[in-house]
Automatic annotation (TrEMBL):
It comes from Limosilactobacillus panis DSM 6035. This is UPF0340 protein FD32_GL001187. Belongs to the UPF0340 family. SUPFAM superfamilies: TTHA0583/YokD-like (SSF110710). InterPro entries: Antibiotic_NAT-like, DUF436. NCBIfam families: TIGR01440 family protein (TIGR01440).
């Protein structure tokens, strides 16, 4: 099946932009990405990886995130226990344990290899708690996104032929019936009655 890389890049950029608009990420936050290039090609996950697609998708994501100061973590497949490629500086800043492994096409996948090619000083880490996630091809990235995960709806339901899912995170709500979840500056009148 022929894949239009221009269309893949366009869909990736559009889906990511819509996610960023809703996730309200800040400089220094991390976006976790799972990518099955096989699924993008309408094949079964892990069965027909494509470096062309991996490079197109990951480069598009990096080019969008870098100017914003948002970091990328690219999840590998189950053959690497879903380890993630991040910049060494991110691993150190977040206190993540670096593990010794390098991705290859059938262990880690094309997305991870593309991340190694496009990052300044890439390393693998076992886990991360990213502030948002983008799953291209049902790669199960929910475990990499901070609790509480919130689904994000975008106009991009597929990249190529791969189903997409987007997540953002929010802090947990705590407290009981007297708790408030929006800032409301204290009003002197309310204290006058107490």
């Amino acid at each position: 099946m022929s894949i239009d890389l221009t269309q893949i890049k366009k869909q990736t950029k559009q889906g990511l932009t819509e996610l960023l608009n809703q996730a309200h990420l800040q400089q220094g936050d991390v976006l976790a990405v799972g990518l099955s290039t096989s699924e993008v090609r309408a094949e079964q996950i892990g069965e027909a990886p494509s470096m062309e697609i991996g490079r197109a998708v990951i480069k598009t994501i990096i080019e969008t995130l870098r100017p914003l100061g948002i970091h990328l973590a690219v999840q590998g497949c189950q053959h690497l226990n879903r380890a993630l490629v991040v910049e060494r500086a991110v691993a150190k800043e977040r206190g993540l344990e670096i593990v010794m492994v390098y991705p290859q096409i059938h262990a880690g996948g094309a997305g991870q290899i593309a991340a190694f090619e496009n990052m300044d000083d890439p390393v693998e880490v076992e886990h991360i708690q990213a502030e948002a996630g983008m799953d291209i091809g049902d790669t199960s990235i929910g475990m990499q996104v901070k609790f509480v995960q919130v689904p994000v709806r975008t106009s991009i339901k597929e990249i190529g032929n791969a189903h997409t899912t987007y997540l953002r995170s929010r802090p947990k709500y705590i407290g009981g019936p007297r708790a408030k979840y929006e800032w409301d500056p204290f009003n002197k009148k309310s204290f006058a009655n107490n």
